Amino acid sequence: MDRRAVYGPRDGTVLSQQSQHRSDEILDGDIDEVLQAKRADGKFWKNLREQDLPIRVQQILHQIGFYGVYRCGRIQYDCHLITALVERWRSETHSFHFRVGEATITLQDVQIIWGLPIDGEPVSGTDLERTSVQWQEYCMQYIGFAPEEGELKGSRLQVKAIIHHILRVHITPDTPHLTVVQYARAVALLLLGGTMCPDSSGNLVSLLYLAKLEDIVAARNYSWGSAVLAFFIP
Question: Which part of the chain is the Aminotransferase-like plant mobile domain (predicted)?
């Protein structure tokens, strides 16, 4: 008997991509490979363990709606569990297929875990055609520093460049409000690129998110929870 008739989908009309699915490799005996996640947030969270963010910055993160992500801290990944879940995820139905039935990630899950806003405007936009110099000027205006040209890759910025910047800046009660806001935007980018919507490169974050953070007051009007859910469910 064909093993795929036992371990694969009983009806191939719905799960039609079984031959390209990772679980099909199990039937060929390739069951020892454990997926490893690419992460770019290690140094950021390590620094936060040594010293919390300044209260003024925390207040702005709360205003944006990212405070829950900051309070949850660095999530410890169980790579074996993630591997098992990947083997049970089906893009045809956008759900995990377990022996007890189907399950999926919901918007309520994202809201409860991280407290992100789920109502409001969609987080969307288009990739802008800017030169490296224009991106450098943009970063200087909104996050307080101009990255080196080698730290930019199109509209994406190296996470380590942002980390190096925030480690150099010291926020005090006398720090100008503009500097505090720029610092908070930089931290928000790190949360987006390292935790909420991590880039597959493991070291880049899209500067397109920064357009939604230009106005700190209006930033909470975006449905960040919906954006995170859409990012994690292909």
Answer: 65-231
20 and 52 assigned to the same domain: no
- Taking the CA of residue 72 as centre, how many other CA atoms within 13 Å lie in the half-sphere pointing to its CB? 17
Same domain, 144 and 185: yes
Does residue 203 register a pLDDT over 80? Answer: yes
Whether residue 226 sits in one domain with residue 132? yes
Q: Is the dihedral of CA 50, 54, 57, 61 positive or negative?
A: positive
Which candidate, 70, 65, 57, places its Cα nearest to that of 218?
Answer: 65
CB 60 within 8 A of CB 216: yes
Phi, psi of 8 (to 5 degrees): -90, -175
DSSP string, 143-193: HS----GGGEETTEEEHHHHHHHHHH----TTS-HHHHHHHHHHHHHHHII
Q: Is 27 helix (H, G, I), strand (E, B) or coil?
A: coil
Domain residues for the domain of 10 are 3-36+78-103
